[in-house]
Amino acid sequence: MSTNNGYAPGLEGIVAAETELSHVDGLKGELIIAGFPLARLAANATFEEAVFLLWNGRLPTQIELADLKQELAELRPLPIATVDLLHEATKARTNPMDALRMAAATLDLGSGSADSLTTAKMIVARVATIVATTHRLRQGEEPVAPDPALSHAANFLFMLTGEAPSDARVRGLETYLNTVVDHGLNASTFAARVIVATQSDLVSAITGAIGALKGPLHGGAPGPALDTVFEIGRADRAEAVLQAKLDAGERLMGFGHRVYKVRDPRAEVLGAAAEQMFRADGDMALYELAKSVEETAVRLLAVHKPGRNLQTNVEFYTALLLHGLGLDTDIFTPTFAIGRTAGWLAHCFEQMKYGRLIRPQSRYTGVMDRVWVPIGQR
Ligand code: COA
């Protein structure tokens, strides 16, 4: 921990919450979600099961799962004002993460008296609709109305294209959403907890969390990570391109992590899911190229920053998997938000139940005892 008389600039090593939601062991490269090792949960659960698990601390029965699926499906349509806002955002060429942040803030329009659980379901259901609507409008196409007969993941893919997705693609997306659903006290989750800790509301917390997720040091990296793979184009160019970026002082997107000092376990799960999906329904040459870029990047980073243990993070295979699902790079981070929204809300529930106002201190480093100079003399 880098502290200086109690001051830790990035709060590394500071425990600011207790949680039953997920456990991140950065040295072992382990992620446990509500008791399940990530690989076991991600590849088996539907997204709705993962949501129920995080919000209730146990897996749903068949009836509970059917009820949750139906409730989420019914809550998918957006308020008219939200759709109008998305049209305006598209006209103004607003980036999809900003459009999501603006639209998320409108989600409780007309349902101000709903209880927290209903509001949470509404947010989970509608964040996916916002992202798909934004994508369609940016393509110059009409939004596709949600299909209540489809699961959350299948319906999202359907709303993007208007076509029923293959089982392989639905499984690929479901594995992705489960993989990113929760991850300890990351920056956006912390932001959400700080907001509800003031006894503010869930829509405010999710809006703030989306703002935090947008930055390239958090959820904004997968687009650039994929751009790098395309820029490299051929495995034999990987070393030269990546070395040039490092020489120019650039960071390699998709590598390095504040907590993981070994390969991010989410990279493992997403790499396997990407391989399975690309084999069934995709471009294996791209998968092979990405594997070779990963291997070269990790090798060069070990020489560039010895002792820093810069390894592959979640974003690298996120990029590959989401690209394989046919998503454009500009909705990679909004799609991350679709999964993480369930985790943010679970943390909000925990914070509301056990938490305390989060109010750290700052250390003043400015001048003291300044002399006041009247405006006429300045
Ligand atoms: N490429 C090149 N150098 C990197 C690097 C990367 N991806 N990640 C970290 N470094 C370097 C830093 O420049 C720093 O060097 P220095 O000690 O000489 O200043 C050192 O490694 C430690 O980095 P630091 O910024 O202290 O680590 P952090 O814990 O704050 O950062 C990230 C973690 C994720 C922000 C960082 O690794 C990063 O920027 N990665 C690229 C963006 C990315 O993939 N984000 C998605 C995160 S899931």
Question: Secondary structure elements and their pairing?
Answer:
Layout: E1 22-25, E2 30-33, E3 36-37, H1 38-44, H2 47-56, H3 62-74, H4 80-91, H5 96-104, H6 116-138, H7 152-161, H8 167-179, H9 187-197, H10 202-213, H11 222-232, H12 238-247, H13 265-281, H14 284-304, H15 314-324, H16 332-354
Antiparallel strand pairs: 1-2, 2-3
Secondary structure tally, helices: 16
Query: How many strand units?
Result: 3
Q: Which small compounds were modeled alongside the protein?
A: coenzyme A
- Give the rounded overall mean pLDDT: 94
Account of the protein in words:
With 378 residues, the chain is mainly alpha-helical. The protein has two domains: 11-219 and 330-354, Citrate Synthase, domain 1; 223-324, Cytochrome P450-Terp, domain 2 (Cytochrome p450-Terp, domain 2), CATH 1.10.230.10. Helices cover 56% and strands 3% of the residues. The protein has 16 helices and three strands. A hairpin with a 2-residue loop joins strand 2 (30-33) and strand 3. The protein is globular and about 70 Å long. The termini are far apart. The structure holds coenzyme A (COA). Coenzyme A is lined by residues 216-217, 221, 251-258, 301, 305, 308, 310, 313-315.
